[in-house]
Amino acid sequence: MKFEWKRPHEISENPQLFVGGASRFDIMQGELGDCWLLAAIASLSLNDDLLYRIIPPDQSFSKDYCGMFHFQFWQYGEWVDVMVDDLLPTYRGKLVYLHSAQTNEFWSALLEKAYAKLNGSYEALKGGSTTEAMEDFTGGVTEIISLKDAPGNLYSVMLKSLKKGALMGCAVETSSASQREAKLSNGLLMGHAYSITGLDILRNGTKLIRIRNPWGQVEWNGAWSDSSSKWDKFPDEKKRLDVEFGEDGEFWMSYEDFCRSFTKLEICNLGPDALEDDGESTQWVTSLHEGRWVRGCTAGGCRNFPGEHILGEPPLPPPPPTDTFWVNPQFRLILEEEDDDPDDDVEGCSFILSLMQKNRRKQKMKGQGLLTIGFVLYKVRDLKDQSSSQTLKKDFFLYNQSFARSKNFINLRENSQRFKLPPGEYCIVPSTFQPNEEADFVLRIYTEKRAETGHTANLNILNYPYSNPYHPPFIIILTNIIIHPLGFDEESENDRKFKQLFDKLTGEVCWYYVCTLMYVGITFVPSFDFLFVPLWDGEIDAFELQDIVNSVMKKNAGVGKFDGFGLEACRSMVALMDVTNSGKLDYEEFKALWVRVRKWINIFKKYDKDNSGNFDTYELREALSNAGYSLSSRLYQMLCV
């Protein structure tokens, strides 16, 4: 099929953006497999305030017409503008994709084109979830409810959500691609997206739901359908609900039949930046946090994935599934105020948690599909040795069970779930299912009452006195570590011994003295090589420090392959420890440097678990944690890049 791109005035003699306002009947699906998008547009058409935020109404084909139209969509925390020309794909003079029942109305076709541009192409819109479009139209957060396990108060939840301006959709899920769009005996289509356009309770207590097929045809044929005799018993209700029979894709059905016939319900709850019909903001309190999973750094995967076995060690029982999980980004949630809903007997704090991966549809054409994502919550209020701002360490996940979690890990853009938990402080850990999968993400928290949220970033490292962005990163690490030099107390025997060795070092130095100097209190077999470094002024400069450090480290540190410190690194060490500004290190300064070097050697040996002589990113993170650092995920990513 060869398309011809035409402007609306070439398709119709009197093109209009809207004809008599927007209606759910303006959405007629074309040849593109994007029923998920059309179902969301049909729901959007029920709320003028939402619709006109997406499509500013001050546009037309007459006044100030320039062949371009302006749209707005929500994208991961902000509203973005999308401009498109009005050239539309046609075949034999008719629109190929989304179109209105009115041949001279073009708002729906232009909206589809703008959304295709947002996502990269029309092709990118093939196949998807209604929740994606609902969120991009409203900035809301969607919860997916399995109707097989529908809660007893679901209809009440739907009424409450619709009153708040929520958008809703439903579907009959399929188990294979061959079942997609297959028609069932009751008239419903499998694997097809429907929009929920209304709810009502009749005077006899019957709960009804109004549903629309974006095809504009093929409807439910059971009870309360267009052909059902049940309407004959309620002519007044039929008139009140403005029920009209016709092949328009819209139908009514009972709530009981709805739960039996459909398998999935999607509710897009609006945030405070979306408006209801009365122009007032909704009741949700929202917080948004951005993060990133980085391979080898913050992409730890779910709890099912331990780290690799240490080479050379005997086989051990399967380790706890937390060897890499703990490196995932962490976020803190503090719930203090319980709900005050008089109709709800369950005490607790209600909130919806949404984890959304960013920009995956745009990368669909590059073969990068959606990742499988989920999240886990831990209660930390009673953890005495952790403050509310600290990142939880590996040991916490070894000895504490999760308090709540997403129902499953799913390969959708968003994984969200409603919770009701007791007041307290919680840690949220979002992750991909597999470790080392990279993606940017957004974590949103919707609460009915105000709550405190934030990233568990402890940035105290920035307050240490020697932090300097111009120093090499490893020098920053050496400087910022808090040292408690046990074994070198004032006037101790070790202190006097250290001073004696330093005095010897500033004359001529042999390996025995240097090694004893570094490893005071540690049994060591020195080399019999001799190194002579004349230091007649009682101080050590950068050249002398380089010779000493490299000679000792290469032969006796036992840390694997070591190529040696460069002169600039040694100059930086001298500059950092030279508190007297002499350009050299005296005894006290040199002692402080060696204490730090010794501490770092011990840490390196402990956490270089595979004895490779190098840290992988996970070993590095454990080493930094042991050294007293609590780094934010962002800062850790910068160190690993």
Strand arrangement, largest sheet?
6-11-7-8-9-10
Overall form: elongated
CATH superfamily membership of the largest domain: EF-hand
Q: What's the main sheet like?
A: 6 strands, antiparallel
Tell me the total number of β-strands.
20
Main CATH class of the largest domain: Mainly Alpha
What percentage of the residues does DSSP assign to strands (E)?
15-25%
Helix share bin? 25-40%
Number of helices: 17
Ranges where pLDDT stays below 50 over 5 or more residues in a row are 275-282, 306-322, 383-387, 458-492, 507-536
The third-level CATH topology of the largest domain is Recoverin, domain 1
N- to C-terminal distance = 48 Å
Structure classification: alpha+beta
Work out the count of structural domains. 4
CATH architecture tag of the largest domain: Orthogonal Bundle
Rg measurement, Å: 33 Å
Please tell me the overall pLDDT.
Answer: 77
Give an account of the 3D structure.
The chain starts with a strand and ends with a helix. The protein has 641 residues and is of the alpha+beta class. β4 (88-91) and β5 form a beta hairpin. The chain has a six-stranded antiparallel sheet. A five-stranded antiparallel sheet has the order 16-15-18-13-20, with no helix packed on it. The chain has a four-stranded antiparallel sheet with strand order 12-19-14-17, with no helix packed on it. The protein contains 17 helices and 20 strands. The chain folds into four domains: 4-137, no CATH class; 141-269, Cathepsin B, Chain A (Alpha-Beta Complex), CATH 3.90.70.10; 285-307 and 320-339 and 346-360 and 370-456, Jelly Rolls (Sandwich); 462-640, EF-hand (Recoverin, domain 1, Orthogonal Bundle). Helices cover 26% and strands 19% of the residues. It is elongated, with a radius of gyration of 33 Å. Residues 595-630 form the EF-hand domain. Residues 1-271 form the Calpain catalytic domain. The active site is at residues 35, 192, 213.
